[in-house]
Amino acid sequence: MTILGSAVFAALLSVTVYIMVCGCIGKTASIFGYSVLKVVSGSMEPSIHEGDYIYIKRTDTDSLKAGDIISFYSQDDSIKGEINTHRISEVLSDGTFVTKGDANKIEDSVTVQKVSIIGKYYGKLRFFKWLGSFASTKKLLILFVIIPTVCMAVYEVKTIAEIKIYSNREEALKAAEEEKEKLMREAVEKEVQRLKMQENEKKEANSFESGKDNEG
After folding, report:
1. How is the beta sheet containing 83-91 ordered, strand by strand?
2. Looking only at Cα atoms, what is the longest distance across the chain?
3. Could you tell me the pTM of the whole model?
4. What Cα–Cα distance (Å) separates residue 3 from each residue in 71, 146, 158, 215?
């Protein structure tokens, strides 16, 4: 795993934990212009199930129409301030919206004001619902702590091994280069000695010839 890969992994893990934590406490998680939230009731079944993680995006409220699914802060006294996700059944002349859950028999008793709308529904994030199935603390510990820790440990061991291999390779190359230089020096020294011996032999031969000439 490269440094870039580690950074991407850490970022994805952080985003995942952020979304899961927000879902557990009933808050929206804002990611790249979208909001992610966990549906806590079955009022929109079969379109959206309880426990689904959905992503929504803030949109021009004037473009909303009957049939659109929106998430909003409810003004109903029984759940006031809580996030609700229902389908628009009618747009009233005063600009408010009548909403209804697909599984509900009647429309919501309180209309939705534009300022209460969080965004328009765009789809589900099935991966996070799967993560939500890890209900026990032990499973979450394995998923978010033990597995990432093991992955990082494996990465560190791999990095150390690569450094060791690289170091050994560098040492081997250095030793080979030193041996090559040593052999070259020895070859040069031998050649110098050979040339000196030839020169001495030549001088001795010349001296011998010169002596013979003098005797004659």
Report:
1. 29-31, 34-38, 53-57, 117-124, 69-73, 83-91, 97-100
2. 144
3. 0.57
4. 39, 20, 13, 89
Cα within 13 Å of Cα(169), Cβ side: 6
Phi, psi of 191 (to 5 degrees): -65, -40
Handedness of CA 201, 204, 206, 212 (dihedral sign): negative
CB 138 within 8 A of CB 126: no
In residues, how long is the chain?
216
**Residue type at 27?**
K
Sort strands 53-57 and 117-124 into parallel, antiparallel or unpaired. antiparallel
* Under 8 Å between Cβ of 17 and 75: no
Which residue matches tokens 């979304």?
Answer: 19
Burial letters 22-44, b for 16+ CB under 10 A, else e: bbeeeebbeeeebbbbbbebbbb
Show Cβ contacts of residue 81 under 8 Å, excluding neighbours closer than 6 positions: 73, 74
- Per-residue pLDDT tens digits for 54-85: 999 999 999 999 999 999 999 998 888 899 99
Asked if residues 12 and 31 have their Cβ atoms less than 8 Å apart, the reply is no
Instruction: Tell me the C-alpha distance between 152 and 156, whole Å.
Output: 6
Residue 164, SS3 per DSSP: helix
182-214: pLDDT as tens digits:
878 887 788 778 777 877 777 776 666 666 555
